[in-house]
TrEMBL record:
Residues 1-30 form the signal peptide. This is peptidylprolyl isomerase. The keyword Lipid biosynthesis does not apply. Keywords: Isomerase, Rotamase, Signal. One of its GO terms (molecular function) is peptidyl-prolyl cis-trans isomerase activity. It comes from Cupriavidus metallidurans.
Length: 291
């Protein structure tokens, strides 16, 4: 497995690999694609047998699917080893009574309830396929809302007016924007120095057509010169946002073919969430709930 593939693995997968190396386990032969087990003498559909306990080939297929890894012989061998390590650990844990511990029983109940709910939703959601016409219409809609210019901004989001005033005073006193982001910002962009993706919108700003940018922020940005900071905090819901405009350029409109797959995925997610909300809403209305 190369370094790039390893870096994409989840934490548990990397831990399993470490356990395998530390224990000097001999590599096991990856199952063939047919899952027949004929090459190793295993029963059909069996990946491996650990102390008499079979591991189903389907578990390997599920592991690859959940991890979103390419289906290659190397990946199959790696995840085969991971499943064997997990089964060895599980057997040892159960031998010592870990399967009867309260936190394990609670985790099992939680996992069961989650699996039941997700399977129920999967079987009861009704989704129409996303058509090419819908994708093109969404593309045209987004392009129509783009302005002539796009902006690169940094923000500091704080929870109250007092903190916002403190940040602005420190900015005027010469404290760097980046330092104040680290000290005060409560936004997720704090980890990237307050930097936001390029944004664009038509000016004057119209509610509902600001490309997801809060209208107050869009209006503030549209009046800033490059390098300038808002003199007053911008109120967005319960937050106070201080904005700096780092750069401005002519809007770069992507070609339809470059973004159509992304748009299709976005439309699918929207449709999925709506269908899910409809199912849950109907069930909630029919349920008797006391709180």
């Amino acid at each position: 497995m190369n370094a790039i593939a390893l870096s994409r693995l989840s934490g548990p997968a990397r831990l399993a690999l470490g356990l395998m190396l530390a224990a000097c386990l001999a590599p096991c032969q990856a199952a063939d694609d047919s899952g027949s087990g004929a090459a190793t003498g295993l029963p059909p559909g069996t990946l491996a047998v650990v102390n008499g306990v079979p591991i189903a080939q389907a578990q390997l297929d599920d592991a690859l699917r959940v991890a979103r890894q390419p289906d290659t012989p190397q990946m199959r061998q790696f995840f085969t080893q991971e499943l064997i390590v997990r089964e060895v650990l599980r057997q040892s844990a159960e031998k010592d009574g870990y399967d009867r511990r309260p936190e394990v029983l609670q985790a099992a109940n939680t996992a069961k309830a989650s699996a039941e709910a997700e399977l129920y939703l999967r079987d009861n959601l009704r989704l129409d396929p996303i058509t090419d016409a819908q994708v093109k219409a969404r593309y045209d809609e987004v392009v129509s809302m783009m302005g002539r210019e796009e902006y690169k901004v940094r923000i500091i989001s704080v929870a109250d007016d007092r903190t916002a005033r403190t940040v602005l005073e420190k900015l005027r006193a010469g404290v760097s924007f980046d330092e104040l982001v680290r000290m005060y910002s409560v936004a997720s962009s704090k980890e990237s120095g307050g930097e936001m993706p390029w944004i664009t919108f038509r000016v004057p700003v119209v509610e509902g057509k600001s490309q997801g940018v809060p209208v107050a922020v869009a209006e503030a940005v549209s009046h800033l010169e490059v390098g300038a900071v808002t003199q007053e905090p911008v109120v967005v819901d319960n937050l106070r946002v201080i904005v700096r405009l780092d750069a401005k350029r002519a809007t770069q409109v992507p070609a339809f073919d470059e973004v159509k797959d992304d748009i299709r995925r976005q439309l699918h997610i929207v449709a999925l969430n709506k269908a899910r909300a409809d199912v849950v809403g109907n069930l909630m209305q029919a349920a008797t709930i006391r709180q």
